[in-house]
Amino acid sequence: MKQIEVRNLRPVFLGTCAAFFFAFTFILNRAMELSGGNWVWSASLRYIFMVPFLLLIVISKKKLRSLLQVMKENSGTWFLWSFVGFGLFYAPLCFAAAHAPGWIIAGTWQITIISGSLLAPFFIQTIQTPNGILKKRGEIPIKGMGMSLIILLGIILMQMEQAKSLAVKDILLGIIPVIVASFAYPLGNRKMMEVCGDRLDAYQRVLGMTLASLPFWFLLSLYGFFTTGAPSKEQTMQSILVAICSGVIATILFFKATDMVRGDMQKLATVEATQSMEVLFAVIGELVLLHSSFPSILSWSGMFIIMLGMIAHSYVSHKGEMKHNQDIGT
């Protein structure tokens, strides 16, 4: 009995660990900004440093050659959607870190759930049924969007607290880039999943998109070099930590957790909901490492509403998916 309980808790534990390491992105980006580092280097160095680590993983799996073959077939598409999925995702997040604390960015980032839902009609779903494969255009999950309003309420409460101490310009510069990133990340990744199909695993796809986005990061680095000079040793080391913690460790832990519950929508929903812990970990991290000011009751309320909304959204979405698949099967 105890072995079964431990087996059921392990995916949740791994998912929570992934959220912990993902939170380092927001904490370290803010730390780099506060220490005088430029957001350009925070963005570009992460992906440049991710390459050797991802290469080691893919090479160890002996899957590098197949990745390069798939990339060669449609290189233009790889460059386009990698730029959208990685470039227009992470550069705006780092830019926003210059105008708001990391926990605010982490909380606002959860709006990506809403953005991802709104993008559903732009993709064709392939569903396996007893009568064969059925293809249909995605639909916006109405019930899931209802739960998303809870997340939006939490974000508004957090931003209301920010509005007391920041100018309107700084608030907008801390929110609008995150909204852009929230659409770019799922759009680029889903488009690449369509292109890759079942030919590549997640590690290959992440490495491929990282390699394809390198021209953008190199250009951004040149811009940073000629405008602010070379990055400091401190920012370089912090960028390596972001690449390892968020780009490698967190990703591997999260993929491992989802692989363990593949096929069980309820357990998958539980694992996905653990990512709401990013907000809490980001707050604790900034309080301990950066000695930031303690969030107000209003901000804490917003954070917990966001976490509640993410959990509710995950369960409602997967419950609806299970019912939809059962209806198709009959």
TrEMBL record:
The chain crosses the membrane at residues 12-32, 38-58, 78-98, 104-124, 144-160, 166-185, 206-226, 238-257, 269-291, 297-316. Keywords: Membrane, Transmembrane, Transmembrane helix. It comes from the Bacteria. InterPro entries: EmrE (IPR032713). Pfam families: EmrE. This is Multidrug resistance efflux transporter family protein. It comes from Bacillus bruguierae.
